[in-house]
């Protein structure tokens, strides 16, 4: 496994082929992801793998909920964002717009309904955390999510982390019979990329190292 190559090449995919992914292949990705570190080795994550008709049923419910509630993708900020951070989101969306135009779709509709439909991926991964933990343990979920998307890339599968679905947690719990004491933290679309879709040519930019790092000697 060339980890550096995987880190540099991996991108979020927003259009998938409907081809089913075998249980064995999904388990290969999960087994690699489970090597992720966690606080005190608590391994706080819980995965729900949704495929087939149940995946379709979940998406139908989420798209319906989006149509009713109109909760959209956003930064989930609790106060106004610093301008430098807000500009990154605006710059990213601006870079995506030519692809949306080529596809003949509206950006808001594509992103929001696409998220609720896991962008057509045949596999929806739902990662949960027991409510006995504080939000501090969301860090563990973030770490294993990073391991998961890199492992998937190395094994020839594409992914897209999806945060919007947490706004429709009640609907997810109802469809998938998730206990009330479990919090839905994030979803991940998993499958084979549709290379014919223009949106899959998009790759988000990254700021320079100096933007994020402060050295103290």
Question: What would the keywords be for this entry?
Answer:
single chain; 217 residues; alpha+beta; NADH Oxidase; 4-stranded antiparallel β-sheet; 7 helices; 42% helix
Kindly report the average pLDDT value.
96
Q: In order across it, which strands form the biggest sheet?
A: 1-2-4-3
- Write the CATH architecture name: 3-Layer(aba) Sandwich
Work out the strand percent: 5-15%
CATH class: Alpha Beta
> Superfamily at the CATH H level?
NADH Oxidase
**Alpha plus pi helix count:** 7
Q: Spell the H/E element sequence.
A: HHEHHHEHEHE
Structural class: alpha+beta
Cα distance spanning the termini: 35 Å
CATH topology description = NADH Oxidase
Structural account:
- The chain has 217 residues and is an alpha+beta fold.
- It has one domain: NADH Oxidase, CATH 3.40.109.10.
- It has 7 helices and 4 strands, in the order ααβαααβαβαβ.
- The protein has a 4-stranded antiparallel β-sheet, sandwiched between helices.
- Helix 1 crosses helix 6 and helix 2 packs across helix 6.
- It is globular.
- The two termini are 35 Å apart.
- The model has no long low-confidence stretch (mean pLDDT 96).
Please outline the helices and strands.
Blueprint: H1 3-9, H2 23-33, E1 45-51, H3 52-69, H4 83-103, H5 107-116, E2 123-130, H6 138-154, E3 158-162, H7 169-176, E4 182-191
Antiparallel strand pairs: 1-2, 2-4, 3-4
Helix pairs in contact: 1-6, 2-6, 3-7
